[in-house]
Design goal:
single chain; alpha+beta; 6-stranded antiparallel β-sheet; 6-stranded mixed β-sheet; 24 strands; 33% helix; globular; disordered C terminus
């Protein structure tokens, strides 16, 4: 599989795209007023403790307090060995992994200052989720402070190789800190590990020094920016080319690579053509369709993606795909194609949480197993942690995908002020019925009423020789003068006469 990484930078935003076989599968966006928080380390102050849900709220200097759950609290980072609470709960010879869970109210007090790291971005009305189990990610290694152990990525199942890597790291790492070898670091040499260990240890020392200065909530370590972060996390040996359209970004990438992987510098290309980089690789059209509810498949079928508060529902349909042989074969082909596109859309839109997929019903059990196996294989290629169930008897498959930041839909869009996020507005017929009820409440005597409505509602009232308008006039013994107002939403209206003035429909009928 051929992979490419594209970096596009403008004053308003920076974008990084990962292409697999010239098709975009991931997009990362960063704006000057919206930097990524995951990975940042803060000195925070405990504002409140809730024993009932074993959680605490931590002021880290952001608009909303961060959320810290007891399972994300490491007692060894908060208490001294001589502390009575520590002595009560932890034996002298117990390792970190054997430490039993301690009630959060036994560890934290309101007003305590602690170091926390953002594990999940603020989403919707929720603040950031944080942890005291701090780690610093590098290209090949992850540094874990105050944990003298060595781990290796689970993607490597070779016991001998894992043992060799642990032995190498044990010989070169300083005491008192732990390291985990990332998947990308499984093939690296001792010299490359040494360089990164020095970089990570220096970064941790700087964060500690910064944390000791002053008091109160404070950022003590900022995660890498989008350019270096993407290079660190997804620039592997199977990436053939990296295109960058800004020279400053190219220099940043080369500076980072020269210290760790100088052989990869030759793959970094400064893009100088007049055609915009994302247009050159036909990405902009894909991004324009990124938030569409309906995604068409090559066969003529399509999938529908609907987001709710609790889950994301995906429906598979044959659409224009009528097949050439039999119905079962057509359905299986559509489901297989949909499975590929669904996994791509999950990565591309950065959809997380619970996802429920409604595949088209298949009659044969072997076909159902075929879809299940294919989905498992396709999901395994997703670098984000996912897990799924088999097909239920109703053709439904449940998938969970780790969510650490808002989906791109939340990043790119605002809730529609007309429908309030519902996706629907009242029809002209419904608005007319509401106007009828409002007139019944307000107009007590004959009057000349001036009614301002959306053009679509005006067209409905005036169609077929103004039948609906005349009905309102006859029913309420008044003369209605219509005014089309483009500034009104379709389900808003205003009316007035010489005696009464009512508020907009949304306000006057809010309690209906």
């Amino acid at each position: 599989m051929q992979k490419k990484i594209l970096f596009n930078g403008t004053p308003t935003e920076k974008r990084a795209a990962l292409l697999e076989n010239d098709k975009i599968v991931e997009i990362v966006v960063e704006r000057p007023d919206h930097f990524r928080l995951v990975g940042n380390i803060y000195r925070g102050r405990v504002m409140s403790i809730l024993p009932g849900i074993q959680s605490a709220f931590i002021d880290i200097g952001l608009e909303k307090c961060a959320f810290l759950h007891a399972t994300d609290v490491d007692p060894t980072l908060l208490l001294e060995e001589s502390d009575k609470v520590m002595e009560r709960f932890i034996g002298d010879n117990q390792s970190r992994k054997q430490i039993p869970r301690i009630p959060i109210e036994k560890i934290l007090n309101v007003g305590d200052q602690i170091l926390v790291q953002v594990a999940k971005e603020p989403i919707s009305t929720k603040g950031a989720k944080v942890t005291t189990q701090i780690s610093l990610a590098g290209r090949f290694l992850v540094l874990v402070p105050d944990a003298d152990f060595i781990g290796v990525s689970k993607r490597n199942t070779d016991a001998k190789k894992r043992a060799r890597l642990k032995q190498i790291i044990a010989q070169i790492k300083p005491p008192g800190v732990g390291f985990i070898v990332r998947t990308i670091g499984l093939q690296m040499s001792e010299a490359e590990f040494i360089n990164e260990i020095h970089m990570l240890v220096d970064a941790w020392k700087k964060a500690q020094d910064e944390a000791l200065k002053g008091t109160g909530p404070k950022l003590v370590h900022r995660e890498l920016g989008i350019t270096t972060r993407v290079i660190r996390d997804i620039f592997t040996d199977d990436v053939t080319e990296v295109y960058v359209d800004q020279d400053d970004d190219r220099k940043e990438i080369l500076s980072y690579l020269k210290a760790l992987s100088p052989d990869l510098c030759k793959k970094v290309i400064l893009y100088k053509e007049k055609v915009p980089l994302f247009d050159k690789f036909n990405i902009e059209k894909d991004l324009e369709r990124l938030l569409k509810r309906k995604v068409w498949l090559k066969s003529g079928g399509y999938i529908l993606i609907d987001r709710t508060e609790a889950l994301v529902a995906i429906d598979v349909n044959t659409g224009r795909n009528v097949g050439k042989t039999n119905l079962e074969e057509t359905i299986v082909k559509t489901n297989l194609e949909a499975a590929t596109e669904i996994c791509r859309q999950l990565r591309l839109r950065d959809i997380g949480g619970l996802i429920v997929i409604d595949f088209i019903d298949m009659r044969l059990p072997e076909n159902r197993k075929k879809i299940e196996a294919y989905m498992r294989k396709t999901l395994d290629a997703d670098p984000t942690v996912t897990s799924g169930t088999g097909l239920s008897k109703f053709g439904l498959m449940e998938i969970t995908r780790k969510r650490v930041r808002p989906e791109l839909q939340e990043f790119f869009t605002n809730v529609c002020p007309a429908c309030g996020g519902l996706g629907w507005v009242f029809s002209p017929e419904t608005v007319t019925a509401r106007i009828d009820r409002d007139l019944r409440r307000q107009v007590k005597v004959k009057a000349d009423v001036i009614l301002s409505v959306h053009p679509a509602v005006a067209a409905y009232l005036l169609k077929e020789e103004s039948v609906m308008k005349k009905m309102l006039e006859r029913e309420h013994k008044c003369t209605v003068t219509l005014i089309e107002d483009d500034e009104l939403d379709q389900d808003e209206y205003m009316f007035e006469d010489s005696r009464i003035i009512t508020e907009k429909s949304k306000e006057s009928l809010a309690d209906e």
